[in-house]
Amino acid sequence: MKERLTRRRLNRATLLRQSLDERAELSVETMVERLAGLHARTSDPPYIGLWNRVDGFRKEDLTTLLDLRAVVRASLHRGARYLVTAEDYLWLRPTLEPMLRGRRERLLGRRTAGVDCGQLAAAARGLLAGRVTPRPELGRALADRWPGRDPLALARSARLLLPVLHPPPSGLWGRRGPAAFVLAEEWLGRSLARRPDPARLVTRHLAAFGPATVEDVQAWSGTSGLREVVEELRPRLREFRGEDGEELLDVPDAPLPPEDLPVPARFLAARDDAVLAHAGGTRLTGAERPRHPPGEPAFLVDGFVRGGWSLAREPGGRAVLTVRLSAPLTRRQREQAAGEGAALLRFAAEDADRHDIRFIAAG
């Protein structure tokens, strides 16, 4: 009979594997690999995500890796921008290729109707060859070849059809504005893997977020049809049951801590995969609570989402961390949250003359 895992124990497994139980003494590159990437729709969240997980993390630690091309920013899982190691990108991009092309058709097919995808990819490749190209410039150049088409839709199509990266200064702390494109193989000086590796995709998700269901892996990656892959892997996987009877799979020897593992308060980055990497969306929210809005950074207490937070600059050189609570906190929990919030302010707003924390009560 398969061992049954409670929701709380699954919560602790995710927090432990995501290094959210305590900050790890690992290199930043190793952490990015261990996490199977970080969501990087905008520039700052990966820095906050790594600050939450790496002991002594400094902004320049990630900036240096991006400059050295050891870590790259590209459209990967679900078509979203992710930060991954260069080594992982080389196999991830071919593995996610069918999903990326399908996503392009669903989101941009109507806006590029009549444009041949092969011709568009070839034209974009020619325009990108040997140079870093801002997205608006690429869009205008493609629109010159397909008059009357939306330049933005053409540039976004190229991003999903071709293995391209968004090189620095795009993705650096505090950087705003449209990303630039560069051909991945030129930037890295290496070739992509010749074959997709969906089995590796499954095991990397399980190592970072497991135990998990097949649906969890598919929701995180945006890739469908992984059940057959899982069946081939099954002899090498551990099997469990969740509280609702769902089948949970895991890689061998991955840690499964007790459900009373103590965990600190945490201020997660927007769209942190610790919150979003499971299909049900309840691993860190609890079954009784609605899925946390992905655009809002989550605030964790005792391992579960208890609200959201934002950081704003105010006149007079003051930086304010506002914590919007979805449930009341005990005095001790508030003290822990205030301590962690003060540390976040020192990291994210070190140049401010004054730091304040405001708690907005639930309901």
3D structure, described in words:
This protein is α+β, with helices and mostly antiparallel strands. Among the domains are: 36-188, no CATH class; 266-360, no CATH class. The chain is 40% helix and 17% strand. Helix 14 (331-348) links the parallel strand 13 (318-325) and strand 14 (354-360). The chain is globular. The model has no long low-confidence stretch (mean pLDDT 94).
Major beta-sheet overview:
5 strands, mixed
Rg, Cα atoms, Å? 21 Å
Mean pLDDT: 94
Low-pLDDT parts are: none
What is the H-and-E element order? EHHEHHEEHHEHHEEHHHHEEEHEEEHE
Number of strands: 14
Please report which band the strand proportion falls in: under 5%, 5-15%, 15-25%, 25-35%, 35-45% or over 45%.
15-25%
Query: Please, how many helices?
Result: 14
Q: Considering DSSP H and I runs of 4 or more, what fraction of the residues is helical? A: 25-40%
Structural class per helix/strand content? alpha+beta
Give the end-to-end Cα distance, rounded to a whole number of Å.
44 Å
Neighbour order of strands in the largest sheet:
10-11-12-13-14
> What sort of overall outline do the alpha carbons produce when their principal axes are compared?
globular
Pfam family, one: AlkZ-like
Protein name: Winged helix DNA-binding domain-containing protein
GO molecular function: DNA binding
Keywords: DNA-binding
